[in-house]
Every structure is written in structure tokens, then in C-alpha cells.
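Researcher: We're teaching a course module on how sequence relates to structure. For the next exercise, students receive a sequence and then see the predicted structure as C-alpha cells, so they can try to spot secondary structure elements on their own. Here is the exercise chain.
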Amino acid sequence: MDPALAGHRASPGPTRLRTNHLAEAFGITDTAPRFSWTPPPGTLRQAAYQISTSNGWDSGRVDSDVHGFVSYGGPNLGSRDRFEWKVRTWNVAPDGIEAESGWSEPMSVELGLLHPGDWSARWIGPDEPDLLAPGQRPGYALHRNFTVEAVPDAARAYATAHGIYELFINGQRVGDQQLTPGSTSYHSTLQVQAYDVAPLLQPGSNTVSAVLTDGWFRGSFGFTRDADMYGTRTAFLAQLEIESAGGRSVIGTDETWLVSATEIVAADLMEGQRVDFRTAAVQRKPARQAVLREGSFATLTGPVAPPTRIVEELAPVSITRLPAGHQIVDLGQNINGWVRLGRLGAAGTEVTLVYGEALDACGEVTQDHLRPIDFKNPGQFLGAGQVDSVVSAGTPGEFFEPRHTAHGFQYVSVRGLAETLEPGDITGCMVQTDLERLGTFSCSDGRLNKLHGIVDWSFRGNACEVPTDCPQREKAGWTGDWQLFVPAAAYLYDVAGFSRKWLNDVRADQWEDGVIVNISPSPGTGVTVAEFMAFTNGSAGWGDAIVMVPWEIHLATGDTVILEENWDAMNRWLGFVRRSAEGNRHLARAALRPTPEEHEQFLWDTGFHFGEWMEPGGPAPDLFASRSLDNGIVATAFYRHSSAIMAKVAAVLGRDAEARGLRELSENVRRAWQHEYLLADGTVSDQTASDQTVRGGTQSNCVRALAFDLVPDTARPAVTDQLASLVRDAGTHLGTGFLATPYLLPALADNGQLDLAYELLMQDSAPSWLVMVDRGATTIWEDWDGIGPDGSAKGSLNHYSKGAVVSFLHRHTAGLRQAPGSAGWERVIIEPRPGAGLTSASTSHRGPQGLIDVGWTIDDGVLTLTATIPSGTTADIRLPGEPATAVGPGIHTFAAASARSADTSPDLLRSTP
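Model: And here is the predicted structure for the students to work with:
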């Protein structure tokens, strides 16, 4: 070997191996998996790769810089197949020499059961002659005994349920996943978990059992507390396969299994869980035979997203006993999950746990702000739920952990326990999808660091199975919330598999006419008691999630398959929008202009729209009035935005003719918006055709005009001045609602108003982000005044959508963003834009190429920037007063006078492709 190459050959191998975006590919049901890896650090770029699998496939050297989503090319895969894969690369070193890396650590891949015929097990459940009310239904144990002659060579359990299940073998809980089988649109998709259970088996007699409760399948759910959404009977399906030298033996659920009562008296995701540990001794009933249930095998699928787990445990920061005897536990952090209680009192003691996000004036947990409207009884409210209880059996070592429910809370009121709780007696369990962290941020301002932290926690508290709006009152996968926050989420965490799983449900729930429903997973509109749950579907800004979310995931990862999977659904949604625009005119516009003008075919001004939901100082939301409101200025803006994104998607997918057509459509919609809503002086019109037309000249509409490129370049200064004036007229406060807030600061900063953007960011009187920080928030509030000056609570205190502001901290303050035309972070722009007296900021993002790390400080008028650029990445460095500099992989340091450069950078806008 050439001595000069010896050092290079010893270089480390690739890292962060993934299969279909998953770090754990166990039980998957994709027979054409795709492999990704991160090239070794310290190199300029990958020149070639070689993949080798334990089942006989070797790609040989493939000359390519591709290291994401490489298709498996080995033997055809079938049910239960297992193999490992590893990769090595040839990389160009900084000295220009190509060198071979070492092999990566191997990654295991195992397929689950692919076909209905693989199942000999049958769906079973408990016989329930008298069905109790939702929230009052008990948990059941389904079990059977079996014999194993010797320790098996391998053993797998495949399990799922209509409800929530926990699986046990010989009394030991199987795996660490929570709330299985997870939340999906059960009519179309039901996840199956696969487990390696060989270590739990023993020669001789064994017992397999499962605890089954209502879960998402038939428990109460959402704002309306509808129940029995997917069916009225719970069911369980499991197949245990034991392999030994003698072959494979199968133990599956069938009518020979027995059903017994459990200590779970009632369990419901919304209401809570009640347990009586005396049940086995006091209320023992003989086991009875399980009954066969109807259940699909065609809808079963393996994992697409990481599993849900307890990802963190929190000790109390304080425990306070009130005069009434209740003990108030403060975790110091609003989370999603439950508590584990290890002090239950003497036998027969009933302890009640009331969970909440806030305390009242007396220091007691309050839930008043979380009670939803009772649509069956106007003017009344439903209970907030979130109450657990346990009756002690007095057994040594007894503890209570309600794993068949979940709550959004910071505080717990422990009632009925005479003994004084110690910090070690109670633990908060943070339950979420087990997402990998990718991004960080910090700066010299402690309040901004705190803001970033509460946004991070708020997202984590809403990342349980699906992206929810809030973890207490609704737990619902609202489309609008996720499309707003996904750019920030994808920077901070690997949400590719998480989003892909959710998008599978969004497509499955799409209506025949192309409407995207507001909430996914969804059982359909026929199960709800609230009329608005049907007529509000199809709203601009919510339905557009089917376009915007896949695009954001593509930009973050470089994955094109997520675009292909959702292309048809995007087109069906756009078809609905286009038909609505071309076939309908708002009555107010028709009264004003009896003969439609040419541009009106591109105005989307009819149908229900949430509009700029919850604008500060705006009218209270009125869903029923919104059915007849002209929200065309908002809806048409999203029509333009989604059609423009779809043109880019079509180009990425090589659909050139469709891309041209979509660009033309998008431009026509843009011109129609200008014709209808832009005045001759270049400002957004504030005129309304009638009292049925929403105001035009608002902060929100000016923001969209800039962010969605609705106005010509010649009008941008006028709209920017209009926006700045509106902000100043509001006392330098934001006036944006749900849809426009993520774009507000970038729209100002990128159009010559960086100082004003920072003034809004640092504003500490309501409405503002820092009010949340100063009033002790640990997660982002639904309302800007979620906690009032008097400490009273309003609305949900864990709604992450307003937290999308952290993208401004990443892209503007710290200065790291992806370059136009790049996907997967192959090209980046680093341009710090300090303000508000900040003297330092740093951010990092672990993208597909590797870790990008940026940090800057200002000292004595000099801005010093340090940037770490990974293999295969180029960075454009832009510093004030200095020419742009292109650099490649490595660690780079630059210095420049800290005087600010011109604040006009149109490509800074949200996720510019």
C-alpha cells in the first residue's frame, strides 16, 4: 500500500445509519427499504459507496455522492426476514486524495408479517353484555398458558389492538413502548408492534397476557369528547412465534384465551385512569372465555415513525400541602404523560390525582380554562377530565402508574393521602414519540434562551404519536398547527418518519372531492355531535398542510418519495380549491359587481375558512358566521402559495409539463390577488365590500403579501411601510393571529425592518412572546394572554404554533439557513443578523450531510464568526461590509465590523427552496 494512503484508509466509517428514516427498523412491512447514512467527518465529499448486507447482497463500489434513500437491491424480502446492512464510502480528503473509509457499524432490519395469510391468530375480545358509558369502562386481561420445551433460538411477538394494550410474558412487561398500537386512522391503518421476546421465555410453563383498554379506538376524544369513534368493542390480536431446531411453533389469540378482570376500574385517554389494587382479592371473578371479534388483517402495517416512549422523568421542584390536606406537586415543567406514585397509603386508601397546567388564587390545581364547550347543551361546559385515582391494597412495593391514559400538566393535586409526600415518592413521566434531536440554539439574552426552551418543550408535549394541538383539552392532529410549525420542528428534531406516518392518515382521511379534513387521524364526520366538525373542513391554511408539510420534509431531508406519496392528494386538494374558485362567487362581490371580471375565476372567496384565527384585539371566533364570510384575501393567498409550491414539487419529480401549468396557475392567482386587494399606491386595501368581508389592511394580510410573494417588487416597500405603521400604531405590538405569526418577523427583517423585527421579538407587554417568559410559562400558550397579570389562566397553556418564531432565531439571529434550490442541507447560507443588543448567538443542525455548527460573538465592535461545515456541504458566508465568501467542509473563522448590512434579503423567507 502507498504509505501516503495508509492514514486515509484508517478513517472512520459512516454514521447515523437509517432505514426508511428509522433508527430502529424492527417489524417494518416495506419490502423495498431505503438506506441512508452520514458520511465520515473530516472529508470534503463522498465519491462512492458500497453497501453490504448479511443476506447476500453487495452493491460493490457505486460511484456516487448519494448517501440518502438508496434502495435495497438484495434478495426479495418476505415476512420475518432479518438482515443487517453496513456501508463504507470513498471520500475525497482535504488534500484531494480519495480514501476508503472503514465499514460502518451494522444496522439491523427485520420485517414483520406482510400478508393476511401470515396470521393464524384471530381477533378476540372480552364479552361485554352491558357496555358502560365512555370513561367508565374497565380494563381487561386476556391470557393463556403454554409450554416451551427448551430455551428457544428466537421468539417474536406481533401484537395490535382495537384500543390500547400492554403485553406481558410471565408477568414481565414486553418492551418499553407506550400507548400501543398508537394513533392512526384505524379504518385504513392499524400498526402492529413486533417484539423480541426470547429472553422472557423459560423452559416449561409460560403465560402470555395483555391488558386491554379503550384508547383512541372507542374512548372519548377531542374537544367534543366523542366516543366509540371506530367501534364499540375493543379487541386484541397477537401472534407469538417461537423458533427452535424443531421448527416454528405459533401461539395466537383465539377463543381458547381467557379474559379476567384487572385492577383497572376505568381508563380513558381524556378522562383518566382509575385503579383498585384490591380488585384481585376483593372482587375476584372466575376467568371466562374470550370471544372472537371482527377485525381486518389487510389494514395492518409495521412502524413508519419512531415509537412512543417515556423519554424523560422529572422530579418535583416542590410539594406543598394546602389547608384542605391536598398536596400540590409542581414538576416545574408542563409535559405530556403521567406521574408514577410510590406512596399510596394504607390498604383501602383512595388517592385521587387531579392534573392541571395552572393553580388558582388559593394554590389549588385549576382546570376551568381547559373545559370544552358542551355542544349538546349550549352555554354549558364539559369536564376537563385528567383525573386519576388509585385504591391501595397495602402491598409492599406497590406503586401506581396510569399507562392507559395521558395528560397535559405541570401540577398534580394529590388528594386523600394523609402521609406527606417526599420528592422521591412521585415522578413525572414525559411521554412522546422518541424523536432524535437535530438542532440547538443559544444566545447572550437569557429570556430568548428561555423562549426557545419553552417552544422546544411545547413541541415535545405535542409530539405524542401525531402532531397534536394540545395535550390536554383535545389531543387532536390539527392540520393547520403542523403546517405552521413543521419548519421549526424539522430543524430541531428528526420528524421525517413522524410526519410521514401522519400524512398517511391525512391522505386516508381525504374526502372524495379533495377536501383535506382539519384533524387527522379522523374516523369521519359522521361520528361527531358538533356540526362544525363537518362544515369547517376544507379551510385555507388547514387543508394546505397536504402541500406544505411534505415540501418541508423534502427540504429538510432531500427525500423525494414523500413528495411522490402525497402528489395525488396534493392535486386532489388543489382541484377542490380550483373548482371552488372557478365555480363560485361570494354574494357580496356579486352584489357589488353583477358581471364577474376575468380575474375572479382565480379568487377563492367562498366556503368556510377559519381565516386569521385569534388575532389579538380581533373579533371573537364565530364558526357559524364564518360560513358566509368573505375570507378571499386569506384563502386566495394560500391558493397562490400552495400552487407555487406544487409547481416546485412537480419540477423535483420531473413532471415538467405539470410544473409549467402550475406556475402559470400560481401567477394567475397572484395577479388576481393583486387586482382585488392591492391599491394603486402599492398598499393592501382595507376596503370591504360589505360586513361579510374580512378586513384587508391588517398586519396579517400585509405579512402574507410579503411572505407569499403576492405583490410585485415595486410594491414591496409600500406594503412593508404599511406593515411597519400597523405595528407602530399597535404600540409596537404584533397583531397577527394563527396563520401569519410565523412569517411576521422574517417579513419585516427581510424587507428593511430588522430593528422593528427585534423590537417585536423583545416586546415584553402583551401581546408578545416574552410576556409568556416573564409570567412563568414553560410551554407556549394558545392565547397571547394565557396567564393574565393576576395569574388567572385562559385557554390551553401548551399550544406550540406561536412558537414557530424560533425559526427567526435560527435563520436570522444565529444566521443559518438553507440556500435557495437546496434540499437536504447540501448548500447553506450563513449570515448573522444581530439585533437587540445581542453580543453572541450560536446554533447547530445535524442535517443529512452531518453537523453544521455556527456561532458568533461581538466584541469591541468586531463580529467574529466560527462555522463548522460537514462533508458534502458548501456554505455562503455573508458578513456586514464584506464580500460573500464560499467555503467547503471544515472549521472556518471570519471577522468583520459589526455594522449591519442592508436588511433586504428576500431569500430569507420561510423555507425558500
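Model: If you want an answer key for the exercise: The chain has a mean pLDDT of 94. The CA atoms of residues 748 and 757 lie 6 Å apart.
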